[in-house]
Specification:
Strands 1-2 form a two-stranded antiparallel ribbon. It is mainly α. It has helices at about 40-55, 70-85, 90-100, 110-125, 135-140, 145-160, 170-180, 195-205, 215-230, 240-245, 250-260, 260-270, 275-295, 310, and strands at about 20-25, 25-30. This is Cyclin family protein.
Length: about 325
């Protein structure tokens, strides 16, 4: 693990976009610069492939979407995946499978719990640490039998024509990190602040029913957009990211703003909430406000701005 106030990188030659600044006996980080990376034709082809796969995904029917119990079950998913040491990819693959099914098939509350545990069971097979049916039964205190889980898995896979590897918001977030020149996410170490922040924003967005009504690419773009503003970048969206997702800044901003009320609610009620996602997000925002209000004067690069949305809740900072 890294020392407090420093950023770990997978590659020793990769420099962070942040430098530590000591203020009142604690250390915070301030952005100083960012290197632009040229987008190769091969990378553009991969981005195009993901977008085409996204366009082939079934469209949600928002008239039958089931937002009830979503926050509780999504939070359970994050806690369980952390306990089982599953990757972020598996978490968002599970959410994608759940949302593809529940936005096209009417389900009740009991079925929704079964859908979540079965989706996690199916998607975990992508990793060597895949969980067994018996493990799934233990996770839900034997509420569902083996036949229930296998039967639901068949329904889930048939509903998506067995195309379980659909692109997720996390996949699109990865290509934005790649386009920006950031190192890959490492679940076992501390990562680049932009990467950590964008994951936190994406996770808190999953609690909101708006999550199911937006495409994976627009969700990833919004989380990345929030993270760059949170880290005080002036240029929140440029041609590199537009080429990756084929989305203009105005389009990304419009999607991002829809999630602001839910985020503000989580920050204000983090002490009352039992959701780990809300607590972690609230702490991130509070730490930011406490530290950055004293180190704004240290931000002097032309690439950075003195305030972000979370400093004063002014949406104009997104412009």
């Amino acid at each position: 693990m890294c020392d407090e106030g420093h950023v770990c990188m997978n590659e020793p030659n990769t420099k962070s976009a942040f430098v530590p600044v000591s203020l009142n006996n604690y250390t915070t980080t301030v952005i100083i610069s960012e290197k632009k990376k040229r987008i190769s034709p091969e990378f553009q082809n991969f981005c195009r492939y993901l977008r085409e796969r996204q366009n082939q995904m079934p469209l949600p029917d928002l008239t039958i979407a089931t937002p009830f119990m979503r926050p509780q079950l999504v939070d359970w998913l994050f806690k369980t995946s952390e306990y089982l040491h599953l990757s972020k990819k598996i978490i968002f693959q599970t959410l994608t499978l759940v949302d593809l099914y529940t936005t096209r098939v009417v389900v009740n509350s009991d079925e929704l719990g079964l859908i979540f545990v079965t989706s996690l069971f199916s998607c975990s097979k992508f990793e060597s640490t895949g969980i067994k049916v018996s493990d799934v039964q233990k996770l839900c205190n034997n509420k569902y039998g083996k036949e229930d889980i296998i039967g639901m898995e068949k329904k889930l896979l048939e509903s998506i024509n067995y195309k379980i590897d659909n692109p997720t918001s996390y996949d699109f977030l990865n290509i934005l990190w790649e386009a920006a020149g950031y190192p890959q996410y490492n679940q076992e170490e501390r990562n680049h602040p932009i990467i950590e922040a964008s994951i936190q924003f994406l996770q808190i967005m999953t609690l909101d029913p708006f999550y199911t009504s937006n495409s994976p690419s627009s969700l990833a773009g919004s989380a990345f957009f929030f993270a760059r503003d949170f880290c005080h970048f002036v240029n929140l969206w440029d041609m590199r990211y537009q080429r990756c997702l084929m989305m203009k800044k105005e389009e990304v901003r419009e999607v991002a703003i829809d999630f602001v009320p839910k985020m503000q609610y989580c920050v204000m009620n983090q002490n009352k909430s039992s959701f780990k996602v809300c607590i972690d997000f609230g702490r991130m925002i509070e730490n930011h406000r406490r530290k950055y209000c004293e180190c704004i004067k240290h931000i002097q690069s032309k690439n950075t701005k003195p305030q972000c949305f979370w400093d004063n809740n002014d949406v104009k900072n997104f412009d």
